[in-house]
UniProtKB/TrEMBL annotation:
Residue ranges of domain Alpha-L-rhamnosidase C-terminal in the record: 658-728
Protein name: alpha-L-rhamnosidase
Ranges for domain Bacterial alpha-L-rhamnosidase N-terminal: 48-214
The organism of origin for this protein: Kribbella sancticallisti
EC number: 3.2.1.40
Catalysis performed (reactions): Hydrolysis of terminal non-reducing alpha-L-rhamnose residues in alpha-L-rhamnosides
Gene3D superfamilies reported in the protein's UniProt record: 1.50.10.10, Galactose-binding domain-like (2.60.120.260), Maltose phosphorylase, domain 3 (2.60.420.10)
Domain Alpha-L-rhamnosidase six-hairpin glycosidase: 326-651
InterPro entries: 6-hairpin_glycosidase_sf, 6hp_glycosidase-like_sf, Alpha_rhamnosid, Bac_rhamnosid6H, Bac_rhamnosid_C, Bac_rhamnosid_N, Rhamnosid_concanavalin
């Protein structure tokens, strides 16, 4: 019987309070040995009417009923294990049968117990206690209402996974596979109580599960040296390697994102230690994928097979949170479409129970990218539940002083300057406002306002002569840059957002207070960094973009500053010498001031590091640094993906009105540029599909618009004409001056 995934449930009804955290005695006696399995045998009288499993695990669990896996991959997801564990709820009625039934739970360490062996890579070191599960199964059958809960009546053993680390790899020995026959399970020793963090709470999981969202065939299999083969999946992805293996074989699998000059894998981005899996089969063949871990990779090295592997014997299973896609983009210039594609791939690859970075070597919930490039997350997926959950974990990570860390949950704190950068912690201010404006749910503001205020007060109290002088500044994946200006300007901008939140929540006195502090901080920044000749800081593009975007310059100064910004970019041949903070600001500033030709050119230069350089050198997902595949940092990272917002909001022209909440008042203002002859984008708002599709044929501009229910759209055509329309499809035509049109096509 196959489980109907449409019947998977969300529930706030926790497992019965009498359920215990349990673990197998064999694993408890040897916690660095093979991983534990617990199981129970229970009778069902006649066909069941309804059966519901509620289950939590510390750290990763795989739940099965009568041999059928019930749980989704890598459950339950990230949480602060010192505080709470999430439980998942499944309707398993279809899997029960009259007579004896078996439920099994396999457990792996995940980030709850991150240790390594030998020299294998482990990003963090954690040990919160015993692995364990807490679960209840309640069902109704011919005998009435029944309840099974985890306690000493369960049985335990160890399974075929002999070692696992969230980033370092996994070892599997099929000769140690367990038998789930009821008579066999009853011979296992009794399960024992697991030692787990004191006071740990059970909370319902509120976010979409991780699932297989795409299956990738092997595009090429090559022998690089005797007995060693390299598989190419064609794209960089995050997920599972699935492999068909023959009997009585032991293989070693090494993932990689890059190849060296000889065609061997180059594991440089996988971590600062080896990453690999080993699999040993028994007397029968086996289809294998990791149980308690996943990888970021494009290439896979296989060694130990008795015969060369076929392309059909190995697959890539793309794993991601099963969120609803929300938007699409396409353009006549393939480079723009290709950039959108690799940015979306990087988002998907890092979209698990939290948005991560570096799905190959880190997999941590860094905070800064959530707000710096929030629009690209929203354009591509329904991220409301995922990001609200991230904010909850962020609030839990806040110290009594108000301090917030670089990533959450902060399982293994980093040393300074990594730990306290303001662009990471200020997600607690920016992200609730962005979610409120996108989804019109005021609850997110109320839930996070107190924590946001405490963090801002902490930052204000931690300044040195009025400036924030610590952290990463305009982080570019290598070195901290422009720290005092970038950090302090970001704080000033956050004060303005906090004032806006206070206004929505009716806290007028606090609104005035935050606004006053912002004014004083902005004045300090001007005195410290804005020079008489109009330069900012050391005169870099990054500092100028951040200063304009953060309100450091006056309205009167901004036109000249934008021109200076553009001149600097042109003079440096459109080279992107900025980090993630300045990149987000740069795109926003240039687009707001209609410098679209310049933004377009930023996508095309390929002789120096930048977007075009990544594509030229074969990037299939957005890379962490502008060097792309020519440099050994993450090849799958969305932090520099701000250009995708320009695609949707300016090339296609889908924008919120300045005073809009929830996409009820939108502006459709497409801007043909750079030789584009067509572009289109759609976005699924909370009420329906918003769409813009335009074609430029000679001097004739045709725009096809779809407006969802409960929405008013102001359409601004390239010739300056303005139309206001409501729900429905609308077609507009206008003329662009022939000289301008020819120039656009030529460029």
């Amino acid at each position: 019987m196959t489980l109907d995934r449409s019947k998977l449930m969300t529930s706030t009804h926790a497992p019965d309070v009498r359920a215990e955290w349990i673990i197998s005695a064999a694993w408890k006696a040897a916690p660095d040995g093979p991983l534990p399995v617990v199981a129970a045998v229970f009778p069902v009288v006649g066909p069941p009417q309804r059966a519901v499993l509620r289950i939590a695990g510390l750290g990763v669990f795989i739940a099965s009923v009568n041999g059928q896996v019930v749980s989704d991959p890598l459950e339950p997801g990230y949480s602060d294990y010192s505080r709470r564990a999430e439980f998942c709820t499944y309707d398993v009625t279809a899997l029960l049968r009259p007579g004896d039934n078996v439920i099994t739970v396999e457990l792996g360490p995940g980030c709850y117990r991150s240790k390594t062996i030998d020299d294998r890579w482990a990003k963090i070191a954690t040990d919160y206690g015993d692995l364990g599960t807490c679960a209840t199964l309640d069902w109704i059958d011919a005998g009435g209402t029944n309840l099974l809960r985890t306690d000493a009546s369960w049985h335990g053993t160890t399974g075929p996974v002999t070692w696992s680390n969230w980033v370092g790899g996994e070892d599997y020995d099929a000769t140690s596979a367990f038998d789930t026959d009821t008579a066999v399970v009853l011979t296992w020793p009794p399960a024992v109580t697991a030692q787990v963090p004191d006071g740990i709470r059970l909370c319902p999981k509120t976010i979409p599960p991780v699932r297989v969202v795409e299956r990738l065939p092997a595009l090429d299999v090559r022998e690089t040296q005797p007995g060693v083969h390299v598989v190419d999946f064609g794209v960089n992805f995050a997920g599972w390697i699935e492999l068909d293996l023959p009997p009585r074989t032991e293989v070693r699998l090494r993932p990689a994102e890059l190849l060296d000059a000889e065609g061997n894998i180059d594991p440089v981005t996988q971590g600062w230690g080896p990453v690999y899996h080993t699999v040993r089969t028994a007397d029968a063949g086996l289809t294998w994928h990791p149980r308690f871990a996943y990888n970021g990779l494009r290439y896979l090295e296989l060694s130990g097979l008795p015969e060369p592997p076929s392309a059909e014997s190995v697959r890539g299973l793309v794993l991601a949170a099963d969120t609803e896609p929300t938007g699409t983009f396409a353009a006549s210039d393939r480079r723009l479409s290709d950039l959108h594609r690799i940015i979306r791939r990087a988002i998907t690859s890092n979209m698990y129970s939290m948005f991560t970075d570096c799905p190959q070597r880190e997999k941590l919930g860094y905070l800064e990218q959530l707000h710096l490039v929030f629009p690209i997350l929203r354009w591509n997926y329904d991220v409301k539940a995922l990001l609200e959950n991230s904010l909850r974990i962020t609030r839990e990570a806040q110290e009594p002083t108000g301090h917030l860390p670089l990533y959450v949950p902060e399982w293994d704190p980093f040393p300074d300057p990594w730990r306290g950068d303001v662009n990471f912690g200020l997600a607690i201010v920016f992200l609730p406002w962005q979610l409120y404006r996108s989804y019109a749910d005021e609850t997110v503001l109320a839930d996070n306002y107190a924590a946001a205020g405490r963090y801002v007060e902490y930052l204000l109290a931690s300044r040195d002569d009025g400036l924030v002088t610590y952290g990463l500044g305009d982080w570019n994946g290598r070195d901290p840059r422009f720290v005092p200006l970038v950090a302090t300007a970001t704080l000033a901008r956050a004060l303005g957002v906090l004032a806006a939140i206070a206004a929505v929540l009716g806290k007028e006195d606090e609104q005035r207070s935050w606004t006053a502090v912002q004014g004083r901080l902005t004045a300090l920044l001007r005195g410290e960094f804005v020079h008489l000749d109009g330069t900012v800081g050391t005169g870099s593009v990054a500092e100028l973009a951040v200063a304009i975007n953060s309100g450091v310059l006056t309205e009167a100064e901004i036109p000249a500053a934008v021109q200076r910004l553009e001149d600097l970019i042109v003079a440096d041949c459109y080279y992107l010498d900025v980090g993630e903070v300045a990149m987000a600001a740069l795109v926003e500033v240039l687009a707001e001031h209609d410098r679209h030709e310049t933004v377009y050119r930023l996508t095309h230069g390929d002789d120096r590091p930048g977007y075009g350089y990544m594509l030229k050198h074969g990037a299939t997902s957005l890379t962490e640094t502008w060097d792309g595949p020519t440099f050994g940092f993450s090849q799958n990272h969305f932090m520099n993906g701000a250009i995708d917002d320009w695609f949707f909001a300016h090339v296609a022209g889908l924008q919120q009105a300045a005073d809009d909440i929830g996409f009820r008042k939108v502006v459709i203002r497409p801007r043909p540029c750079g030789g584009l002859t067509r572009a289109s984008a759609d976005y699924r708002t909370t009420t329906g599909i918003l769409r813009s599709a335009w074609v430029l044929d000679g001097s004739t501009f045709t725009l096809d618009v779809a407006v969802p229910p409960e929405t008013i759209a102001t359409v601004v055509l390239p010739d300056g004409a303005v139309r206001q329309v409501a729900e429905g499809s609308h077609l507009f035509k206008s003329s662009i001056d022939e000289e301008d049109a020819a120039d656009v096509v030529k460029r």
